[in-house]
Every structure is written in C-alpha cells, then in structure tokens.
Amino acid sequence: MSKIYDALKRAEREREVARDRDVEPNGHPVAYQPATGDEEDDYRRLRASLLFTPSYSEVHTIVVTATRHSEGTTRVAVGLAKALASEGDTRVLLAEANMRSPSLARTLPLADGPGLSNYLAGEASPETLVKRLGDANLSIVTAGDRPEVVDCEAIVTAIAELTPNFDFVIIDAPPVNRYADVSVLGPKVDGVILVVQADETPVVEAENAKRTLDRVGARIFGVVLNRQKSYVPATLQALL
Ligand SMILES: Nc1ncnc2c1ncn2[C@@H]1O[C@H](COP(=O)(O)OP(=O)(O)OP(=O)(O)O)[C@@H](O)[C@H]1O
Ligand SMILES: [Mg+2]
C-alpha cells in the first residue's frame, strides 16, 4: 500500500516538473491537445492563448510547422483556422504552403480547382484559387499540383497578395527540420506555431527546430503538444 502511495506522490511531483518544463523554458504559451478530449475546445483554447496574450496582439499571419512529418501540422492548422473563423465576422484564410506532402485537397470537402503552385505558374487567378469551406468565414488555398521546384519566396509573395481580404492567415507548412521552406516563410510572417508529438518527438528534434527558428529570426508563438495521452507517470507504469 505504502509503495503505491509513494509512487503516486513521486508521480505527482514528476507531473509538476513535467508541467513546469513545458511552460517555463522560453516563456512560450503551450497549448495542450489531449487525444481523447474535446478537440474543438482545445482549438478554442489555442486561439485564446494566441489572441489574449498581450505581447501577441499583432497576430495576423501564422505559419504552422512541425519538427517532422505526420506530427499533426495540418490537423492543427485546420483546427486553429476553424476556431478563428468561428468567431463573429472573422475572415480566415488557410493557405497550404506545404508542396512536399499536400493533403488539404483530399481531406477537406473542397471543390476541385487550382492551387497555389498553379497560381505561381500563372495558370490561375485569385478568384479561382480561393475556395470557401461551406458557408463559414473560412477560405482555403490548396497547394496545387506538385511543382518541380518549390519557390518559397514566391509563395510568401503570393500569400501576401491574398491576405488583405482576411483577418487571419494560417499557413500550413512542411516540417522545419526536413526542409528549408520554413526558414524562408517563418521570418516573413508574424509568428510560428511549432507542433510536436507527445511522447514521440525526440527532444533533440524539438531543440533543432527551435534553434533553426531562432537563427532565422522567426518568432515562436508557441508549441502545440499534439496527441497528448492521459498522463501515466513512469514511476506508476513500472508498478503496473
Ligand atoms: N491529435 C490527433 N488525434 C488524432 N489523429 C491525429 C491527431 N493529430 C494528427 N492526427 C492524424 O495523424 C495523421 C497525420 O497528421 P497531419 O496530416 O496533420 O500531419 P502533418 O504534420 O501535416 O504531416 P505532413 O508533414 O506529412 O504534412 C492524420 O491522419 C491526422 O488526422
Ligand atoms: Mg500536412
């Protein structure tokens, strides 16, 4: 009995330390996203942590990236864009700048049509490029056909041409540790949200991502700890 009690006490302390470690290091707000929780609520909290932190009042264009593929960049970008668009008359553009592994065209119920790469190639007008998601205030630009060469400078310019019509622009970008794209995009926007996967992303990958973003002068708005499961402390696991 006392063994379990001791383990629980140790677990509680471990959890406090883990919580402090997540929040303290750089003063960035951290948004938790429990895998089994209410996802819409998680994104409303992420939205709130972005908008109601005084130093982040000039948030307009945000790049979402991860350290590696499949950590949840697109899921977070879509969730955040929907949460922002759900408030009043807020007009939001979700722009897919990920031409490495685009997925919006097949995962969202969007009409077929050209994407960003087609616009860059002079094959599409802004009117045909921007698609509305249902009746919502959310507009989407998909990546388009995969180009031979990804020109991130041109992507930034193209997105900037579209932004005057929107209150927020969320940019779904490829992983920062795999491609140089975010090193170009990051410093040109208001800030970057970094997605890491709970219990999966190696610390060294997260550190590399932060180092890269700092080096290029990108402002890190915060880190989303994606797919966080309910907390089972190591000390308790050892007893089970
Ligand atoms: N919190 C979550 N709960 C459940 N499924 C999730 C969660 N986050 C991501 N997924 C799923 O994991 C898969 C990969 O996520 P996603 O497409 O967002 O990754 P990504 O970082 O955009 O990958 P890539 O870099 O290749 O574009 C998707 O099927 C997505 O729905
Ligand atoms: Mg993606």
What are the defining features of this structure?
about 240 residues; alpha/beta; Rossmann fold; eight-stranded mixed sheet; 10 helices; about 20% strand; binds adenosine-5'-triphosphate; binds magnesium ion
Task: Please specify the SSE layout and strand pairing.
Elements: H1 2-23, E1 30-34, H2 39-51, E2 61-66, H3 73-85, E3 92-96, H4 104-107, H5 116-120, H6 126-129, E4 131-132, E5 138-141, H7 152-162, E6 168-172, H8 181-185, E7 191-197, H9 203-215, E8 220-228, H10 234-239
Parallel strand pairs: 1-8, 2-6, 2-7, 3-5, 3-6, 7-8
Antiparallel strand pairs: 4-5
Helix pairs in contact: 2-3
The chain binds adenosine-5'-triphosphate (ATP) and magnesium ion (MG).
Magnesium ion is lined by residues 73-74, 98, 101, 103, 172.
Structural account:
The structure is a single chain. The chain has 240 residues and is of the alpha/beta class. It is 40% helix and 18% strand. The chain contains ten helices and eight strands. It has helices at 2-23, 39-51, 73-85, 104-107, 116-120, 126-129, 152-162, 181-185, 203-215, 234-239, and strands at residues 30-34, 61-66, 92-96, 131-132, 138-141, 168-172, 191-197, 220-228. Strands 1-8-7-2-6-3-5-4 form an eight-stranded mixed beta sheet. A hairpin with a 5-residue loop joins β4 and β5. α2 (39-51) packs across α3 (73-85). Residues 20-30 have low confidence and may be disordered. The protein binds adenosine-5'-triphosphate and magnesium ion (MG).
Quick recap:
By secondary structure, this protein is an alpha/beta fold. It has one domain (2-239): 3-Layer(aba) Sandwich (Rossmann fold).
